[in-house]
TrEMBL record:
Region (Disordered): 1-64, 588-610
Recorded family membership: Belongs to the TRAFAC class translation factor GTPase superfamily. Classic translation factor GTPase family. EF-Tu/EF-1A subfamily.
Span of domain Tr-type G: 172-400
Matching InterPro entries: EF-Tu_GTPase (IPR050055), EFTu-like_2 (IPR004161), GTPBP1-like (IPR035531), P-loop_NTPase (IPR027417), T_Tr_GTP-bd_dom (IPR000795), Transl_B-barrel_sf (IPR009000), Transl_elong_EF1A/Init_IF2_C (IPR009001)
Record key words, sorted: GTP-binding, Nucleotide-binding
Official protein name in the record: Tr-type G domain-containing protein
Compositionally biased intervals (Basic residues): 28-51
CDD domains: GTPBP1_like, GTPBP_II, GTPBP_III
Feature: compositional bias, Low complexity: 595-610
Pfam families from the UniProt entry: GTP_EFTU (PF00009), GTP_EFTU_D2 (PF03144)
Length: 610
């Protein structure tokens, strides 16, 4: 007789769970039981993955020759020759990490965690401090961990140390973080608390300094893109406006800057949010979710946008002071379920202590699937320090080699904002995509509605509201253009070197995937296309090899801008939308204006023949 045990399948008499004895057990196992076992197996695997991230293995991966991480077994009383060699090595690691390096003390080059005694560890840290002083840097002890191999009774430790350059000539490390989340989730309030250094009063006082328009103050809702800065000095201490500093003083005192791009949460301002994500090239995205409302409104949409544009994302659950522990846990479980879904395939990592924050910062940039989750309050200040630790340690995505390669290319500056400033004249804001830009440099800007480029001269340059002499690839800044006519400029233009032969087009082809469409996507459809800082309505001219597209299908599509030509780059990420229609892809081919007329004639002839 077969006995069915809940969730364990059928077990026959004399047959144990360890497979001893005889009996045919697998044939009559119900489908439901197998499904339960599969779910439990997945849960165990997910728990195992999270446990593997949290608990350090007895060894690290072998040391890489490139990158900013260095393993050192010990640094006890080196000779002068050895000390000079070590200082040169540190300089190389700092250069690789764009001003930051991480030293693992007590670890062999092959990654084995050996550990050091208390006396050797003190001597090693002292030597590392001398090395840092020689190259103009400071050290911060991130964490110490005990290593136990049962070899002796003495405690042996390994130490993780952050080495950071003292700021010089304004060349601080700058990371851009886009702030996403549903309306009323507490985005602007959190930024106000981080950048002003004062907790909120529970009624939105902290966010008032961030708003740019009267209607934003009246409604409490962000409708435009604003930028806020948070600095960290070479010792890892926070530098913000709390001590009545100006933006210029914050830049001067900081070795690392976090520039927050505060985006709108309301669905009405979705086009502004998309422009912020595509145009300002954020390194990371911070998704803010209110603990008391959970996943609501535009939360899923913002998460999807960041993932479509391949921006690494971490999550902050705010307003934990307003609700019970059970409500917070329910919101976190909702987020974990969402992140583990097939479309996301993320591994959520709850940050509940300083050690978790250090691990999260390092794993976050090394693995695409790790998503740290913070739970905090802008009113009580609960767990706010953990977020600051995370932001302080967060390494840049690109290394110095990639940065150098971009700087060797010709100058290309994306125009994202245009202003008229009294006594200064026309000012443009944006990001330098490649090359180097200096005060007094002569560039050309375009394309105009006729497809031409106009000559201009760069006056003064400002980064984060402080004067700057040289702008390098990847940095955001504002450029004064003096008496240049503002009416000739528009968002989406580029300022490039006169040596460059910029390719402009009215038509282009892109390989796309249709994420959602209510009916079918076919020739003649009109959508708003976002490519970098370009945002314009385009018509679908043709779908190669297909008559129409449905949700989830892929195709190569030719688009035609309806107003004026644009400057595009091959391979650039593309995002298009119209109402509920959404799609992503990349540019595969540019059609110069001379070819557009011929292509249209050939296409019309083909249509008539069919």
């Amino acid at each position: 007789m077969m006995v069915d045990l809940s969730g364990n399948g059928a077990v026959s008499p004399g047959h144990t769970r360890h497979g001893q004895g005889s009996g045919n057990t697998g044939k009559k196992t119900s489908k439901k039981s197998r499904t339960k076992r599969g779910k439990r197996g997945r849960k165990r695997r997910n728990k195992k993955n999270i446990r593997n991230i949290r608990t350090p293995p007895p060894y690290f991966p072998p040391e890489a020759e490139e990158g900013n991480i260095e393993y050192k077994l010990k640094l006890v009383n080196p000779t002068q020759y050895r000390f000079e060699h070590l200082a040169t090595q540190l300089k190389w690691r700092l250069q690789e990490g764009r001003g930051e390096a991480v030293y693992q003390i007590g670890v062999e080059d092959n990654g084995l965690l050996v550990g050091l005694s208390e006396a050797d560890m003190r001597a090693s840290l002292k030597t590392l401090k001398r090395m840092a002083e020689k190259v103009g840097a400071d050290i911060t002890l991130l964490r110490e961990r005990e290593v136990d191999y049962d070899l002796d009774r003495n405690t042996r430790k390994i130490a993780e140390v952050l080495v950071r350059k003292v700021p010089d000539d304004q060349q601080f490390l700058d990371l851009r973080v886009a702030v996403l989340g549903n309306v009323d989730s507490g985005k602007s309030t959190l930024l106000g608390v981080l950048t002003q250094g004062e907790l909120d009063n529970g009624r939105g006082r902290a966010r008032l300094n961030l708003f740019r328009h009267l209607h934003e103050i009246q409604t409490g809702r962000t409708s435009s893109i604003s930028f806020e800065i948070l600095g960290f000095n070479s010792k890892g201490e926070v530098v913000n406006y709390s001590e009545s500093r100006t933006a210029e003083q914050i830049c001067e005192s900081s070795s690392k800057m976090i520039t927050f791009i505060d985006l709108a949460g309301h669905h009405k301002y979705l086009k502004t949010t998309i422009f912020g994500l595509t145009s300002y090239c954020p390194d990371f995205a911070m998704l803010v979710v209110s603990a008391n409302t959970g996943i609501a409104g535009t939360t899923r949409e913002h998460l999807g946008l960041a993932m479509a544009l391949k921006v690494p994302i971490f999550i902050v659950v705010s307003k934990v002071d307003l609700c019970s522990r059970g409500t917070v846990e329910r919101t976190v479980r909702q987020l974990e379920r969402l992140l583990k879904q097939p479309g996301c395939n993320k591994i959520p990592l709850m940050v509940s202590g300083a050690d978790d924050a250090v691990t999260a910062a390092q794993q976050f940039t090394q693995s695409e699937c790790i998503t740290p989750i913070f739970t905090l309050s802008s009113v009580s200040g609960e767990s706010l320090e953990l977020l600051k630790v995370f932001l302080n340690i967060l390494p840049p995505l690109s290394n110095s080699k990639e940065q150098e390669e971009l700087m060797q290319q010709l100058t290309e500056f994306q125009v994202d904002e245009i202003y008229s400033v009294p006594d200064v004249g026309t000012v443009v804001g944006g990001t330098l995509y490649s090359g180097v830009c200096r005060e007094g440099e002569r560039l050309v800007v375009g394309p105009t509605d006729e497809g031409r480029f106009l000559r201009l001269k760069v006056g003064s340059i400002q980064r984060n509201r402080s004067a700057c002499r040289v702008l390098r690839a990847g940095q955001a800044a504002t450029l004064a253009l003096g008496s240049f006519d503002r009416s000739l400029l528009r968002k989406g233009m580029v300022m490039v070197s006169p040596k460059m032969n910029p390719t402009i087009c009215c038509q282009f082809e892109a390989a796309i995937v249709l994420l959602f469409h209510a009916k079918t996507f076919r020739r003649g459809s009109q959508v708003t296309v976002h490519v970098g800082n370009v945002r314009q309505t385009a018509t679908v001219e043709c779908l190669h090899g297909k008559d129409e597209l449905r949700t989830g299908e892929r195709a190569v599509v030719r688009f035609c801008f309806i107003k004026h030509p644009e400057y595009l780059r091959l391979g650039a990420k593309l995002l298009f939308r119209e109402g509920v229609t959404k799609g992503i892809g990349h540019v595969t081919r540019l059609l110069p204006p001379s070819q557009n007329h011929d292509q249209n004639q050939n296409h019309d002839q083909n249509q008539q023949e069919h």
